[in-house]
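Input record (one chain):
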Amino acid sequence: MKESRSTQQINEPWTRSQQEALEALAVSSKQGLDTTDIKARRKQYGPNRLRSTQTKSAWHILIEQFRSLIVLLLVVAATLSFTFGEWVEGAAIAAVIVVNALIGFVTELRAVRSMETLQRLGSVSAKVRRGGQVQEIPAAKLVPGDIVLVNGGDVVTADLRLIEASKLQANESALTGESVPVGKQVEPIEKDVPLAERANLLFKGTAVTRGTGEGVVIATGMETELGRISALVEEAEEEITPLEKRLGQLGHRLIWLTLAIAALVAVTGILTGKDIILMIETSIALAVASVPEGLPIVATVALARGMWRMARRNALVNRLSAVETLGATDIILTDKTGTLTENQMTVTAFALPSGDIQVEGEGLKTEGGFSRNGTLLDLCDDETLRRALEVGVLCSNAALGQIESDEDITAVGDPVEVALLVAGAKAGWERQDLLDKKPEVREVAFDPAVKMMATVHNIDSRYQVAVKGALEAVIAASSHILTAEGEQKLTDADREKWRERNNQMAREGMRVLALADKTMDDPNANPYERLTFLGLVGLLDPPRSEVRPAIRAAQDAGVRVVMVTGDQPATASNVAAAVGLVEGKDVKAIHSRNLKHPQEWMEKDQRRILQTQLFARVTPKQKLDLIAIHQENGSIVAMTGDGVNDAPALKKADIGIAMGKRGTQVAREAADMVLKDDAFSTIVVAIEQGRAIFDNIQRFVLYLLSCNVAEVMIVSLASLINAPLPIRPLQILFLNLVTDVFPSLALGVGEGDPSLMERPPRDPEEPIMTRRHWLAVAGYGLAIALSVLGAFALAIRWLEMAQDRAVTISFLTLAFAQLWHVFNMRDRGSSLLHNDITRNPYVWGALGLCIGLLMVAIYLPGLSNVLQVVDPGVEGWGLIVGASLVPWAIGQISKQLDQSRYR
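The corresponding structure, as predicted from the sequence alone:
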C-alpha cells in the first residue's frame, strides 16, 4: 500500500490550486452541488461512513477456550473413560475441562471494538453549501464535491481541500502525531511532503481549534485518511503470543508422547497374552496419567494473577495470554507525544535582551519559578521579564480554570496560549486580574499571512498593545528593543543576532515566539509598527519526569527502546536526548521520506533500520512496516501509542500498549494493554511481571510434567513386568486434581526472583521446556516412580499386605512424594532453607490443604470407597513417609551438585 492513496476524484489534491480542485470535482464554490449531482455521487460513492468491523461475540470467545491441544487431550481421555464405562473418571475429567473454560472465559471476556468509536464520527452534522444555500446535514450524507464550512470547535467530517482559510488551525495529533495545532492555508504544496505537512487539507476525525474556512470534499468514508487507518487496523494481523505458541508446541509433544507410550504398552500387553479388559483399564490409566489435567487451569490462574498484579501497578491487560508476552519483549517502539512527553506545551525558557531565563515546572502545574544561571529571579528586578510575561498573558484567547497550588488546572484554547497563561500564573498573574486593570478594547486575530496577533488595552488615557508572533514578522515591525538600560534603537546587527538566537532555540526542539509591545494614543491605529521588541519565549512539550530512569531500567534489562513519532526530526532528537534514549542531540532521526517501501529494502537498508533508534514523521503504514521487520528479525515487539493513527500498529505488535488518560478510545481498544497512568515506567514494571510469570509457568509445568511422567512410568513399568496396577485410574485423577493442582497454583503465583531485570530477555524461540527441563522431568519422574514401585513391592512382599492396602500405600507414597517434590523447584544457586519456594506462603498453604484432603480421602467413608483406599496402618504410614522422602532427597542432592558445578 502506498503512503497515501489517491482520493476519490482527484489525485494529490494538496499540489493543486483551489480552482483546479474545484474543476476536477466539477463544482462551484459559490453554488455547491445541486440535487442531481448529489444523488449521482451518493449512488457512486455510498454514505460517508467507515466500514464496520465484526466484533467477537461472547460465544466465539467461549469456543476459543477449547482451542488448545492440552484441552483436546483431556477431551480424548474423557471420551475413552465414557466409552469403556468409567463414568466417574469421565465426569471428573469433563469437570476439569468446564472449570478451565469458565476461568478463561470470565477472565478474558472482551470484544474487539476498535472501529466503533470511529463509527460515531459519522453521526455528527456538517454545514454545507448546496444549491447556493448554506444548510446543515448529517455527516453521513456528504459526498465528494460538497462545499463544507468549518469554524473553531468543529469536528471535521470528511477530507477537505481548503479553498478559503482565515486564521484557521486544526488539532491533528490523534491522526499525525503532531504535538501542536497546525496552521492551515490554501496555497498548493509540493508533492512529496508527508501527511502532517499538507497544510491545505483538513482530515476527517480531526478538530478545528480556531478560525474559519471552507473546503471542498475530496474523500469520504473509507477513502479518507481516517478510513485508510481503519483499513490498516482490519488488515493488521493480531500476533499469536509466544505463550500460545509454546503451549501449542508442548501440546504436540504430549500427544505424541501419549500415543507412543499407549502403543508400546498395548503391544507389549497383547504380546504377553494379557486380558483385553485389563489392557483397556491400563490404557485409560495411561491416558489419565499422561495428560496434565491441571495445566490449563494453573496457566490460566497464573496469568490472571499476573493481570491482577499489573492492574495494581496501573497496567490493565486486555488479553490474558499477553501477560506472559511482556516478559519476552526485547524491543519497545514508543510514540513520543503523551508517552515520553507530557503532551502539554510548557514555557521552558525566555531569551531576553537582559539574558536568558529558565522557567521551572511543567504541564498545567502553576508551581515553578524563574531563574538565571541557577539563581531565582524576582520579577521586580527584571523589567524585561515582567513585560514579556504580561504580553504573553494579555495577547491571548485562552482561559485557565481555577488555579490551585501544585495541581493541574483546566484550560481552554490554543496549547501555546495556555502555556503562556500558565507561565504568567507562576508569576502570580491571572489574565482576568490584568484585564480588570487593563481592559481589552480590541483584538487583531492571528493571521497566517501576517504571522502575528495583537490585543489593545486601555491604560488611563492611552492604549497598550501586546503582540506575539513569528520572530521574522515581529522584529520587522519593531523599531526599538528593551534592554537592562531601557529602550534603545533596534539595529540591523541586533536583528541578525536575534534571528540566530531564534534558530538556535528551534534546533533545540523548541517552538519559538517573539514578544513585543508599545503604547499609542489611537486604539484603531496599526498595531504592527514601531513596536518595542522584548525577546523570545521557548516552549516545549516536556519529557515526563519518570521516563529517563524507566528507559535506563529497560536498557539494563536488555530491552531496546526506539522512538517512532509523527513529529519533526529535530523535536524527536531533542526529546530522545532529554530522556536518555540517545547520547547527545547529534543523533539524527530517519525521516519518513527516507523510508522506502519494504519491497525496495536492500540488506543494508534493513540493517540500518534495525539499528536506528529514532524515526520521525512516520505514517501509520510505516509503523506497521517497522514492527514487521523487527518481528521478522526474531524480536518480540511492544508498541506504544495514543492516537487513532497508532491503532493499526498497536494491533500488529506482539504487545500493543495504549495510554489510558490521553489515549483515544480507538487506541485503547486496539491494544493488549492500557496504562492507566500513561507512564512509560509502568511498561518496565509490566515487563518485570511478565518475566516473573514465565518463570512461574516454567516452574509449574516442570512440576506437573515430572509428576505425570512418574505416574506414566509407574503404570507402564507395572504393565511391562505383568504386575498388578500399583495405582488405579481414579486415584491418578484425584492426585492430578489435588496434589498436582494446588502446589502448581502456589508455584504459579510466586513473586519472582528480585534479579529478574538484571537478565537479558530470553530467546523468543525458547520453548517452555528446554532440553535441560525434559531431562529433569525424566530424572524426577524416574525417582518418584521407583520410590512408589519400591514401596508397593515392600508392602506386598515384605509386609505381606493385601492388594488393596498395598495399592493404598503406593497411592499415598506417590501423593506425598509429589508434595515434597515442590521443594525441588527452587532455583539453581538458592539456599536449601531460604529460597523462593520456602518464602512463598501459598506453597505452605497448598501443602497443608493437600495433606488434609488426603486424610479425608483415606478416612471419610464413601470417598474412600470410590477411590478404593483403606487405612494403611502404622507400618504402612512409616513406609509411606520414608519412601516419599527419597525423591526429595535425590532432588536436593542434585541441586547442590548443580550449584557447585556453576560456581
